[in-house]
Amino acid sequence: MASPKPVHAIVLDAGPMLKNDPSISSLLATADRLVTVPAVIPEIRDATARSRLETTWMPFVETVTPSPQSLKSVTDFARRTGDLAVLSKTDLHILALTYELESRRSGLSNIRTFPRQKLVKPKAPARPRDGLDVSPSTINEDTSLKQDPPTDVLQTGPPSDSAKDADGEKPGVVTDELAEVTRSLQISDAPLDHRDPPPNSEAAHIPATLPPSSNSDSDSDGWITPANFQKHQAKDQNASIAVSTEKPVGVACITSDFAMQNVLLSMNLGLLNASLQRVRNIKTFVMRCHACFCTTKEMSKQFCPRCGKPTLTRVACSTNSNGKFRLHLKKNMQWNHRGDRYSIPKPVSGSANGKVSQGKGGGKGGWGRSLILAEDQKEYLRATSDNGRKKETDLMDVDYLPSILTGERGRAGGKPRVGAGKNVNSKKR
């Protein structure tokens, strides 16, 4: 009889099918079923990936649509964790399908309905001790064996007048017999470790000293061996645990989206990485406002969604298997105030709609022209829309020149510059 597979069903996102990581053969060897939602298929538009999907993946992958009740439960939970704003409709359908399959297989007792909910595990029945039968009949038999100690205790001291046996004999006769028995015994004063074993015993062939063990813990900690290979591999995968070393998983999801991973761990649902190992902790980054301490998971934001200030900083965070979200802040973090205080040049007509002539207004050198200070400015909206329409640079183009030759210095990530910069108060040439 073939051994059961570690996972009953795996819910796939578009990432594994697009990158072919893990491969379809690895997934079939790990899970009994491969499931996805119909909305994932149109997301794969690459010609090579589309051909591989239709020929290799689709014969083994089932498409299932989750129920509206499961979709509502997942949406409400994502709203409580704050991930609903960054989750697409397809992401919610994948989460709902994972939730529905897990609830059908294992019930709702192991799934959280709100973040940081403490799950009550059912108590296991009491097991009897090894080799003992804990039953009323056995207890009665044990109690019946308890009797009063015998009355014919040997006396080694001087006999008394009242100490006589039932037959009228004196205790001195018993003590003489005991003395003869002790003389026949050979009692050695040597320690037990240094006694010579009998010549015919098996212990005589065992050497007195054993060679020291070569498998010391200090020598094997730094080496990767077949015994600790999975431990080191799980350590490199952000504290994940291999599926093969645990009990079989009911339903698990494979995705690289942080918001989906956060919701899955918070709901106590199965989560696997590309190496088909169960993820217990995830580490990523969020944007945190240094002024009002508001956090957002939209990494493209430049202004705080609460106070509107450009004080967002990237902060490392983690989510454990209990659904607890934790921020990892620097111990002595100091906010850089350089370039915060400066005199804003007077506004010039036509600067808001971009019709101002070049070289007009904005201070010396035009540093204050189209100055962005808030998210709702027309200058900021125009800059973000221009970046969206900008074509991607083809590095293989024969007419392409790197920025080090052309002198162009674009913003990192294509984001518009907010404020006047850190060198606004420097001496202008």
Strand arrangement within the widest β-sheet reads 3-2-1-5-6
Which structural class should the secondary elements be placed in?
A: alpha/beta
Number of E-type strands: 11
How much helicity do the residues have? 25-40%
Largest sheet: 5 strands, parallel
- Look at the structure and give the mean pLDDT: 74
What's the Cα radius of gyration?
39 Å
Low-confidence stretches: 130-147, 149-158, 160-169, 201-220, 238-245
Order of helices and strands: EHHEHEHHHHHHEEHEEEEEEHH
Number of helices: 12
**Overall morphology:** extended
Q: What distance lies between the first and last C-alpha atoms, to the nearest angstrom?
A: 83 Å
Tell me the fraction of residues in β-strands, as a range: 5-15%
Please, could you describe this protein's structure?
By secondary structure, the chain is α/β, with parallel strands linked by helices. Helix content is 27%, strand content 12%. The chain is built from twelve helices and eleven strands. It has helices at 14-19, 24-30, 47-57, 68-81, 89-106, 136-145, 172-184, 217-220, 229-236, 258-266, 378-389, 403-406, and strands at residues 7-12, 31-36, 61-63, 241-242, 249-254, 270-272, 277-278, 282-289, 295-296, 312-319, 325-328. The chain is extended.
SSE order and pairing:
Layout: E1 7-12, H1 14-19, H2 24-30, E2 31-36, H3 47-57, E3 61-63, H4 68-81, H5 89-106, H6 136-145, H7 172-184, H8 217-220, H9 229-236, E4 241-242, E5 249-254, H10 258-266, E6 270-272, E7 277-278, E8 282-289, E9 295-296, E10 312-319, E11 325-328, H11 378-389, H12 403-406
Parallel strand pairs: 1-2, 1-5, 2-3, 5-6
Antiparallel strand pairs: 4-7, 8-9, 8-10, 10-11
